[in-house]
Amino acid sequence: MITMPQVDRYKQRAVNIEFFAVEDCSLLPYTDRFSLIFITSGSIKGLLNDRPICINAPGILCLAGDDEWQVTEKHKLAAQSFNFHPEFLVSAIYVETEDYLPTAPRIQTGRSFFVREHPSMAVPRITEKAYPLLFQWFFVLGTEVQAQSDERWACRIKKYLIQILGLLEDLNRMSQHSPVDAVLEYIHTHYPKKILLEDLTNCAHMNRVTLNQLFQERCGYTAIGYLLSHRLKMACDLLTHTDMSLNDIAGSIGFEYDTYFIKQFTAKKGMSPTTYRIISRKLATHV
């Protein structure tokens, strides 16, 4: 059990996160923090703010510190949890300087899962195809909390958190009622890897002309154009909220070479990734 706060042995600072490899959900929610609970087997029933909730594995439960949660039934439950203080959502550059200004840019990806305007968002939809990737990211995130493998360990955890919450957001925007939804799910769960147009047409079971026509009507992009747009969207979050190198960001979103990533980013965004990082952080401090 790794409890909050963590002491960064490289930079001698407190990092307000914790990871429980075995989470029985009975002590939730944890005070003054967000909790991301990954249920890998079994099932659990409970009351969240007096509303009944049932989660069967694989499933995700998102809780805020001011939620009211009561377990009513568990069956062969196996779960892990990652817990983080809201300060952990402050962009990396401000964490480094310990400048916790209210206006400092904060990660917005996935915040809706911890806001109770829509209680159903506490249990985001996941799919069979998404589960292996979520499991991998969650496992590596937990391992990194314990290992602190190098001085950028906290930054990598923030990267995995952005990717996990981003994928959950994408999955919860889809209905999976059409070939386009199937391809969208494929893109959202495979974008860190190499993807060819043939992979997408095989997923949709249609030729590229028809697929691109449907994508244009639905998303305003061709299928490959949407893939590039999604990768650059993830890049924008990582540029703003982490201090990852351009090479590391490129590899995380499916670009084999950082030079090609820089070229595509500059062409689509009208500025280099480095310039975007500087401007986005400055703009966020004035919002």
TrEMBL record:
Origin: domain of life: Bacteria
Matches recorded under SMART domains: HTH_ARAC
Molecular function, one GO term: sequence-specific DNA binding
Pfam families reported for this sequence: HTH_18
Keywords, ordered alphabetically: DNA-binding, Transcription, Transcription regulation
Gene3D superfamilies associated with the record: Homeodomain-like (1.10.10.60)
Record flagged with keyword Transcription: yes
Protein name: AraC family transcriptional regulator
Organism: Paenibacillus agaridevorans
Lineage: Bacteria, Bacillati, Bacillota, Bacilli, Bacillales
